[in-house]
C-alpha cells in the first residue's frame, strides 16, 4: 500500500512539474512577445523622431512655395521695366515650375489632400498666367499685363494654404 501512495505522490509531483514547466514556457513566450512589441514601439518612436522634422520641413517648404508664387510676389520678382512681353511670360511660367519642381520630393511627407492642393494651385497659376497673356495679347505695354496679373484673385492658392495649415495642425 505504501508503494501505491509513493507512486501516486511521484505521479502528482511529476504532473505538477510538467504543469510548472508548461506554465513557465508560456510566461517566457508572453514576456518575449511583450519585449518584441516594446522594441517595435521603440523603433516607431525613433522613426518618428527622424521623420517628424522632415514632415514639418515639407509643410514649411510648400507654404513658402505657395507664398512665393502668389501673383503679386511673383510679378514683383520677375518684372523689370523694359522686359519684353514674351520674356516676361516665359519667366513667370518658368519661375512657377522651377519652384514647384524644387519641392517635388516633399510630397512624400505631406497628406494627399495637401499634395493635391499644392499641385492644383500650381496648375491654376499657370492657367491664370497663360489666360492673362492670351486676353491681353495685343497689349504692348508689359506693365499693364503685370498690373493685371497682380490684381487677379487666386482663391486656389489661398485654398491650398488653408489645406496645408489644416493638415499641419492635424499632424501635431
Poorly predicted regions: none
Helix/strand structural class = mainly alpha
Number of helices: 6
Terminal residue distance: 76 Å
Describe it for me?
- With 172 residues, the chain is mainly α.
- It has one domain (51-171).
- The protein is built from 6 helices and no strands.
- It has helices at residues 2-69, 71-78, 85-102, 112-135, 142-151, 155-171.
- α2 packs antiparallel against α5.
- The longest helix has 68 residues, at 2-69.
- The chain starts with a helix and ends with a helix.
What are the defining features of this structure?
rod-shaped; mainly alpha; 172 residues
Short description:
With 172 residues, this protein is an all-alpha fold.
Secondary structure elements and pairings:
Layout (H helix, E strand, L loop, with lengths): L1 H68 L1 H8 L6 H18 L9 H24 L6 H10 L3 H17 L1
Amino acid at each position: 500500500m505504501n508503494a501505491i501512495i509513493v507512486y501516486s505522490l511521484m505521479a502528482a509531483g511529476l504532473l505538477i512539474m510538467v504543469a510548472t514547466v508548461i506554465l513557465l514556457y508560456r510566461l517566457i513566450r508572453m514576456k518575449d512577445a511583450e519585449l518584441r512589441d516594446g522594441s517595435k514601439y521603440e523603433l516607431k518612436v525613433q522613426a518618428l523622431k527622424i521623420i517628424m522634422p522632415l514632415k514639418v520641413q515639407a509643410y514649411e517648404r510648400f507654404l513658402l512655395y505657395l507664398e512665393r508664387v502668389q501673383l503679386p510676389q511673383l510679378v514683383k520678382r520677375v518684372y523689370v521695366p523694359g522686359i519684353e512681353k514674351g520674356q516676361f511670360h516665359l519667366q513667370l511660367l518658368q519661375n512657377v515650375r522651377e519652384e514647384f519642381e524644387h519641392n517635388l520630393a516633399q510630397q512624400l511627407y505631406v497628406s494627399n489632400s495637401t499634395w493635391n492642393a499644392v499641385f492644383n494651385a500650381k496648375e491654376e497659376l499657370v492657367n491664370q498666367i497663360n489666360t492673362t497673356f492670351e486676353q491681353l495679347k495685343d497689349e504692348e505695354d508689359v506693365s499693364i499685363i503685370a498690373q493685371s496679373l497682380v490684381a487677379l484673385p487666386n482663391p486656389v492658392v489661398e485654398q491650398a494654404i488653408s489645406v496645408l495649415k489644416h493638415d499641419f495642425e492635424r499632424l501635431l
